[in-house]
Write a structure and sequence with these properties.
The chain is mainly alpha-helical. It contains one helix and no strands.
């Protein structure tokens, strides 16, 4: 082989090595870019999940507070009705006792 051909082969090998090195660097850059993108998407998803959980907890607390208020109102109405019933029954018993006492001792 001529010296020129040998030089050409060496240059071709050098270019091939540079292409391989550049290819490996590009693969590493792409790999790092993918990893960064995955991390960012994971962080975004975690934040969205956290926000969703907070939102759901707030909605649950609001609904629970409304239900508690409704139950408290219903209980209050029922307690008032029970107290009225007890009072009416007490008055009825007192009236009955008065009537019996009047009937029993009123004729003496």
């Amino acid at each position: 082989m001529s010296l020129e051909a040998i030089e050409y082969v060496k240059e071709a090998e050098e270019r091939a090595r540079q292409v391989e090195i550049n290819g490996e660097k590009k693969v590493q850059e792409i790999s790092q870019s993918i990893k960064k993108s995955i991390r960012e998407n994971d962080q975004k998803m975690q934040q969205e999940l956290h926000d969703y959980e907070i939102n759901q907890q707030d909605m649950y607390r609001d609904r629970l507070a409304k239900e508690k208020q409704t139950v408290d109102q219903e209980l209050s109405i029922e307690v008032k009705a029970m107290l009225k019933s007890v009072e009416d029954k007490q008055n009825s018993v007192v009236d009955h006792i008065v009537k019996e006492v009047s009937t029993h001792y009123g004729n003496s």
